[in-house]
Amino acid sequence: MYRLLKIIFFSITALSMVVMVWFGFTTDINLGRNPLRGTDFPRGRVVSVITDQTTHDSAMRGGMQLLAVEILSGTHRGRTVEVRNILFIDAPINPQIGQTVIVHFDDHGDGNYTASIHSYARESAIYVIAVLFLVLIVAVGGKAGLSSVYGLIFTFVTLLFFLVPSIVRGGSPAFLTIVSAILITAVSLTSIMGFKKKTWVSIVGTIIGVAFYCLFYVIIARVLRITGFNIPEMNQLIGLSFTPVSNLTELLFCGILIASLGAVMDTSVSVASTTAELANGKITFKPLWKSSMRMARDCVGSSANTLILAFTGTFFVTLIMFQAIDFNYTMLINRIDIAVEILRAISASAGMILCAPATALLGSYVYANKKLNLKGEETK
What we know:
Blueprint: H1 2-25, E1 39-40, E2 43-57, E3 60-71, E4 80-87, E5 100-109, E6 112-120, H2 123-168, H3 173-193, H4 197-223, H5 234-240, H6 245-248, H7 251-279, H8 285-314, H9 316-324, H10 329-333, H11 336-367
Antiparallel strand pairs: 1-5, 2-3, 2-5, 3-4, 5-6
């Protein structure tokens, strides 16, 4: 029976991934305002340097080059073109002869074109790194690692081919992200732990943690007067008008939830698994609850810094910049970007922290031996 359940589970989830991939590839929203429409990004190999007007300054190279590049893909494959390469301080692309690059190619017709270096060709390296990472998981984790890889693939497919296309089609980002989070949690944990009580306890505990995150997000956002328009790309998204502006304000909420979901799942699984081990069928609810809470407190204590440090790390360079310019504390603490980081860190961490006692309570109820009396004797 258990084997049949696993076959049904993996069959349904695999089929759902196929449907989501189809849904994602068939989502083609023609907005009519794509600034890159008509532009090609072929691969190219640097043949020679025609002119080099770059200089070195503080170990950084800046200036302009004119390169001869052989196009390796697209409609202009086999053609050698002159390509400008401007080395900006924030993106110094300095390809060597023989190196593969991505070319930003605008064909104006009648043999006229504009071409520049867009980026290094990183696609193949990204695929190799991803495969090696998955191989590492399987090599170390064995069968459980293979199940983890399946969960990772489901997560990737859900986010890229279901969540994003659904939002582009005009769906509610917050609702869709919560649904995606529940799907990812259920599939990932079930594939790893199987159809066991601790799996369901972990799933419910994670959902409770997500609910607490939603509550704290709403409260903190209102107190700090954060509207949701605090995403750097918000102006460009509003200009595209592919979905109501009220939907776009939910994207900050969605980003934080996606970033913190893994930590919430980890906490819930740790508490649920430990509670299951503590119970062993020979302990009543009250002592099991006390033991589980002691473990949950340790888990919270060790995990409290996880999301705080993660979100602060994204703001680290900005903090150094303010220190370097001898910042005014009052000015810094009242900045909107500081408020947004506080919203990210506190709301996500609160969800992770509160899911621990919730999971401990639920696990204690599920695993407690209800046939034992307070003296540990089996009742008739």
